[in-house]
Amino acid sequence: MGYKVVCISSQDGAHAREVSRRVAEALGFRLIDEDIIADAAVEAGVDKDTVADVERRKSAIGRLMEKMAAGAVASAPVPPGGGMGPPASDELRKAIRSAIDESATSGNAVLVSHAASYALADRSDVLRVLVIASEKTRRDRIAAERGVDDAEAGRMLKRSDAGRADYLKRFYGVGEEQPVHYDLVVNTDKFSAEDAGRLIVDSVRSEP
């Protein structure tokens, strides 16, 4: 098998997580998503009890990422009686990058989002994949999955896209994301999650 790691990136509504799940299952790879951020959050100063609680973790990590994108000091819950202080955004950046590098070094992993494709761009054993879909398809999916009307789905999509672009710019200096930044681009307007997963798996099993 040529590639040891698959990085899958996408915009909201492109069904990348379903595609990623199928790829990980077919290859027998670990599927790594928010665990990267959770581990990095602990390393950067969020108490372990907060990270262990799924709902509190999502809230805490969300605030950390928002603060990091703004270039400010990230705020995070501190355990009663003290503990580690709130992590600086640079510390969280380094922790996330370290977690991504460690996951890639371990191999046999599918990394979803968190711009891992950019973090691991220099590695020859990594297949970098972008899963896309048209704006209308993405909007329709978001409306159906989240139970909102078309207008609200459009607003959610716009906020999500803006946040993702800002993250890439601040974290990796990417002014404009382009297809050539990836090794494989799959359009889920055209392909089902199953078919998209099969294309990626076939690519992974080829020699880089």
Explain what this protein looks like in three dimensions.
There is one protein chain. By secondary structure, the protein is of the alpha/beta class. It has two domains: 1-29 and 108-208, Rossmann fold (3-Layer(aba) Sandwich); 33-106, no CATH class. It is 55% helix and 12% strand. It contains nine helices and five strands. The protein has helices at residues 16-27, 34-44, 48-52, 54-70, 89-106, 116-119, 135-146, 150-172, 193-204, and strands at residues 5-10, 30-32, 109-112, 126-132, 184-187. The chain has a five-stranded parallel β-sheet with strand order 2-3-1-4-5, with helices on both faces. Helix 7 packs across helix 8. The chain is globular, with a radius of gyration of 17 Å. The termini are close together. Mean pLDDT is 79; it is low at 50-59 and 68-88.
